[in-house]
Specification:
Elements (H helix, E strand, L loop, with lengths): L13 E6 L19 E6 L3 E7 L5 E4 L4 E7 L6 H8 L6 E16 L13 E20 L2 E10 L1
Antiparallel strand pairs: 1-3, 1-6, 2-3, 4-5, 5-8, 6-7, 7-8
Length: 156
């Protein structure tokens, strides 16, 4: 079993997938225009697109093999999460959200954090292959006491 790193550093409820090279330039207000949607996209001058995920202040992680962001609604632990996400990959309930161009090293972080104050423990480092992606969302309930929100990246 892989130990997952979770971040739970948002009171506001939104996370930004910021290009690592642009973290210091992030001032924490860029994502406000995208915060009316559950999944959004904003541009960071000189650094490309930033994916914004949110809605509620929930812990978040990223499953690299499935290219899927996970937000923890309810569960005793995350021991069965990867299996549940694998099972959900074949679901026809995925909802298309946005298309976005991504590629390289990123930090998943609270979207309102000033990038200059961000530390390694405040973020999850993520590498995404260069490409254009469709972001799809799905709410799963692997059991009666487990609930997770998923957003996956599907290459176009």
């Amino acid at each position: 079993m892989v130990t997952l790193k979770w971040i739970d550093e948002t009171d506001f409820g939104y996370y930004a997938l910021c290009p690592e090279a642009g973290v210091a330039a992030w001032d924490g207000t860029e994502a406000l225009d995208a915060c009316s949607a559950y999944v959004g996209r904003v541009g960071l001058a000189g650094h490309g697109d930033v994916l914004v995920l949110g809605g509620e202040p929930l812990p978040a992680t990223y499953l690299d093999r499935q290219m899927t962001f996970v937000r923890w609604y309810a569960a005793v632990d995350d021991s069965g999460l990867e299996h549940a996400v694998d099972q959900a990959m074949g679901s026809d309930g995925w909802e298309d959200a946005i298309e976005i161009s991504l590629g390289g090293s990123y930090r998943l972080m609270d979207c309102l954090n000033d990038g200059e104050g961000v530390t390694e423990t405040d973020t999850i480092r993520i590498h995404i292959p260069q490409g254009r992606y469709l972001v799809q969302s799905l709410f799963i309930e692997p059991s009666s006491d487990e609930q997770f929100m998923l957003e996956r990246l599907v290459g176009l």
